[in-house]
Amino acid sequence: MLTLKLILVPLALLCVSLFSQWWGPRVAGWLAGLPIIAGPILFLLVLTNGPEFGAQAATLALAATLSSEMFNIAYARSCRRYGWPIAWLFGIGAWLATAVCLATLPATLPFATMAALFSVVFGFSLLPRGTVILPQVTVAKGQLLARMIAGTVLSFTVVSLSAGIGARWSGLLSVFPLISCIMSVSCHKAYGPEFVVTLLRGMVWGRFSFSAFCLCLSLTLQKQPVYLAFGEATLLALFIQFMTTRLIIAPVRTC
Prior knowledge:
The chain is an all-alpha fold. The chain is built from 12 helices and no strands. It is globular and about 45 Å long. Keywords: Membrane, Transmembrane, Transmembrane helix.
């Protein structure tokens, strides 16, 4: 269990950081929308607290795509006017307000599905469009290490506190916009707001596979063995991600 906590989330952050170097912000955002952090955290929650707890947490994680997207929208719409500290505060404020609202609403699968649908609609409607000429992205080793440490801290915190805070907040916190925070701030400082807007808009495409992953877990965790349920959810997420490949990768290759 300790090994999984130390490896899963930091490795996922490392992959996204490297892809941002190779493919630019649009593809990095597309990959960052995958359950690369929430997925490992939900897996650890199931191993720690059982399938019933995990299924409820997955339902809240599905709903929490809305709060995560609200961070992206607030940051993207403020970063062109303000520096990264103010934009980050706007983003965190939007995430917290939405997460608190979600915590007080019914934790049902139909509601969570509607919240995830709204997150995609709001993302495409409210996120500004970037007009950036993509630079060659380089991520220093120190930044990579800091991102991996932040991922480790988040996974440790959520799993360690899960018994006390319950499945509702465990699910909501598993979708804390850690990647959005790290990559938005670092890219804002290094490449400017237009780069960040392109990055965050790319994340909307990852919401489809993320939502499918959480929805599959909510439906199967209490009916199937844990590893089978996560395997099916992962394959479904990868299939949906593959279906969006032409919409994301192809335009980048032709730039």
